[in-house]
Design goal:
Layout: E1 6-12, E2 15-21, E3 44-51, E4 54-60, E5 70-75, E6 83-90, E7 95-101, E8 103-104
Parallel strand pairs: 1-8
Antiparallel strand pairs: 1-2, 2-5, 3-4, 3-6, 6-7
Length: 106
């Protein structure tokens, strides 16, 4: 299931900026441990973002994404008070969904 994502969504004049820090080890399957055994691959395969239950981003990831990736994207439309939901699924079948409310820019 993984640790909770840290998601921040800020409404600006030109739309919404979303920043999500996703806690995941993201192993490529190419590294070896101290004993010389290959560490099995474990990585996020799909990320989905929704604005008020409408899908606005869908991404397919692979082994080239770093540990604890930072996802940043911008949306047109939306306003403070809207809900952003981000979900991911990894190659082990683990998944996580977290959400936040869009805040107004300071």
């Amino acid at each position: 299931m993984g640790n909770p994502m840290r998601i921040r969504a800020t409404a600006r004049a030109d739309g919404i900026e979303v920043r999500a820090l996703i806690a995941h080890p993201m192993e490529s399957g190419q590294r070896k441990d101290d004993a010389g055994k290959v560490i099995p691959a474990w990585y996020i395969t799909q990320v989905t973002a929704q604005l008020n239950d409408r899908t606005v981003l869908k991404a397919w990831w692979g082994t080239a994404i770093s540990k604890d990736p930072l996802l940043v994207f911008h949306l047109r439309g939306g306003a403070a008070g809207d809900r952003i939901t981000i979900s991911w699924v990894d190659n082990h079948g683990d998944h996580r969904t977290d959400q936040t409310t869009v805040i107004a820019a300071a």
